[in-house]
Amino acid sequence: MKQPLNINRIFPKKSLGQNFIHDNNFILKLSSMIESDPSTNIIEVGPGEGALSDKLSKKKFKKLFLIEKDLRLSNILKDRFKDDENIILVNDDALTCNYQEMSNENNSLIVGNLPFNISSQLLINWIMNYDWPPFYSKMILMFQKEVAERIMATHNQKSYGRISVITQARCRVKKLLNAPSNIFFPKPNVDGTVLEFIPITKNANIDIMNLQKILKKSFEYRRKKIKTSLRDYGFLLEKYKIDENLRAENLSVDDYCKLASDI
Predict the structure, then answer these.
(1) Model-level pTM?
(2) What pLDDT, on a 0 to 100 scale, did the predictor assign at position 2?
(3) CATH architecture assigned to 14-199
């Protein structure tokens, strides 16, 4: 039986993509999957009313940063955790926040029920805008189910695309939890999925901007064969013995990384 969480009678803002989790059983299950130690800096993005924050505050950590753009919620959280100097409220936009100031020598953990309307942007930001390996050792993040499926998709699947390749070139991705729509308030029209991201160093030397350039050309007209979409890189297709009659969705992450490494 679901155990509902008490909420602060703050109505979520649609403009900020806010959907609060009100199912305590789900929060407990999610919290149990988040591991930390006294040297870990935990960065929670979009804590909302603090359902997960409460559980995180009881874990071992060096610092716990709560990044909340909504001033109403930020003030509530600041008051709730005012007695713990190691819990720091950051009233800022998660898209423009300076995460390096919160990092702890590659032992930082990013967690969050991300606003669905900016979840993809946040993920790409954390993958593309930092040196590799990055400041975090793991991310545990909530996405709209459809977005999560695109992130995890492999080549030859319909949902495979640019976000699949960029993410998997940099991280090992694992599905942790389904998040049915009825655990949220207000109830969205879609379910959510919690994913785990662990940075990998296999492609650390690849210029991520070159990979982005290749992917943009490949998937802009995804039904065209790569002999057309990647005609400027025909010599690389030949070098790596990649069939020019394939389409963008048929090339593996490794194929794209090989191409990007030679630009």
Answers:
(1) 0.91
(2) 39
(3) 3-Layer(aba) Sandwich (3.40)
